[in-house]
Design a protein that fits this description.
DNA polymerase, domain 1, globular, 4-stranded antiparallel β-sheet, MutS, DNA mismatch repair protein, domain I, 12 strands, DNA-binding, alpha+beta, 16 helices, about 20% strand
Length: about 400
DNA sequence: AAGCAGAGGTAAGGTCTC
DNA sequence: CCAAGAGACCTTACCTCT
């Protein structure tokens, strides 16, 4: 008999904001939001750079009501959430809800530093760990000594304590029979909580939840389900799988049925390879391909160069280069092209991406431009992966044989 | 002559996540 | 005049080859 699988999902509490509160403890308990579009915030903060961060008076911090720009909120402290402010909300909208909130820019270097720190702390205790972005991981408790005690609660507490001692940050942990349920469980007791879910809890703890709580059912699927009068996971579980397949397609429909019954056998993957890398930027104002040609060209070149640097720094080469643009009306267009050779330099990326750009309509103004590299290989492995498919000459022969 | 079947690649768009 | 950036994965369509 194999041991019963116990999988944990760990989520850092208001991660980006909590990292800033370590630096500015005087802001503890206040409404603070971390925001993406930063220029204004950076200016306001750099007005007081010489003092030690923790001695900057609260009154000197920039406020949401003074924010100008097109950014969105990345994270809000729990105090700010009281006002209805939350992740992915436009800054301007948030300013109306909570004008007195303090705004801080994302410090990616600092966030990455704490990300590495909390993950390495976990890995020392439980080595089978899967990265899921900067502030989240799955952990396989199954074979960790003590991982089964109280359904995983003992180990979860130990990990919480170790992370807090190393970083001063709190997290929430859910432990369940699989990743799907663990992910939902980690939401049950936020912040700084632990939640244990057993298979028998499906009906009482999972089925009453809205379908949107399932990781993978987003706004679109949620809306479609609502129109079909399916709101809770229990209602989803009660549907005929074939009916779900008819409505949502073979793959999604079957998947919905499985997850509604709490079934998920995905393993905790300790290694992963990137599939694509990209760079994109939203302009300060919408730009026109003709009227703002020079400005657009500079941004385009810069994106290509940065993407090339990203590839080289991480040791990858790419065979497919693509562009993405968002028009002023938010419609998105993408184009890409696969070439024979693997590349990673900004100039070549710019050349291929430029060809892609010629294939889209540029009559409307643009608000975003992006460049993407995919079909990746590790630099040095290209020769192996680059084995070409049968060429045109052979194709002719094959066709002759057919006829 | 035309259609089918299955695998695999390419392209475009869409959804979802943090 | 709102609505980021980066990445994974899915669907659909089309094409080539066997």
């Amino acid at each position: 008999m194999p041991p019963i699988r116990r999988i944990a999902h760990l989520d850092m509490d208001a991660f980006f904001a909590s990292v800033e509160l370590l630096r500015y403890p005087q802001l503890k308990g206040l409404a603070v939001v971390i925001g993406g579009g930063r220029r204004k915030v950076d200016e306001a903060l750099s007005a007081v750079p010489e003092r030690q961060p923790r001695f900057i008076p609260v009154a000197d911090f920039p406020l949401l009501k003074d924010y100008v720009g097109r950014g969105v909120i990345t994270t809000a402290t729990y105090a700010a959430r009281q006002f209805g402010v939350g992740s992915a909300m436009g800054m301007m909208k948030a300013a109306k809800l909570c004008p007195q909130a303090i705004v801080l820019p994302v410090d990616f270097d600092e966030v990455r530093r704490f990300s590495r720190l909390f993950k390495s702390t976990i890995a020392e205790i439980a080595p089978v760990m899967q990265d899921r972005g900067v502030d989240e991981v799955y952990i396989d408790f199954t074979d960790v000594p003590g991982g089964q005690r109280e359904g995983g609660r003992v180990l979860a507490r130990l990990i919480q304590k170790a992370i807090f001692e190393k970083t001063g940050l709190t997290c929430s942990i859910g432990v369940a029979p699989n990743k799907l349920l663990a992910k939902m469980a980690s939401e049950f007791n936020k912040p700084n909580g632990i939640s244990i879910v057993y298979e028998e809890d499906l009906e009482t703890k999972i089925w009453p939840l809205n379908v949107r709580k399932i990781n993978g059912i987003g706004p679109k699927a949620g809306e479609k389900l609502a129109k079909l009068h399916i709101h809770t996971i229990g209602e989803l579980a009660a549907q005929d799988p074939q009916w779900l397949i008819d409505n949502f397609g073979k793959s999604s429909g079957a998947w919905m049925h499985e997850v509604a019954w709490g079934r998920d056998d995905r393993p905790v993957e300790t290694h992963s390879e990137p599939v694509s890398m990209s760079r994109e930027t939203t302009f300060g104002r919408d730009l026109h391909a003709v009227r703002d040609k020079a400005e657009l060209g500079e941004i385009f070149t810069s994106l290509c160069e940065k993407l090339g640097e990203d590839l080289q720094r991480k040791g990858y080469v790419a065979k497919t280069i693509g562009i993405k643009l968002r028009y002023d009306d938010f419609r998105i267009a993408t184009r890409d092209q696969t070439i024979q050779a693997y590349i990673a330099d900004g100039q070549t990326i710019r050349k291929i991406a430029g060809q892609c750009l010629k294939r889209v309509a540029l009559d409307r103004r643009l608000r975003l431009l992006g460049v993407r590299a995919s079909t990746l290989a590790r630099a040095g492995d290209e020769a192996v992966s680059a084995a070409s498919p049968p060429q045109a000459a052979e194709a002719v022969v094959a066709t002759d044989q057919l006829f």
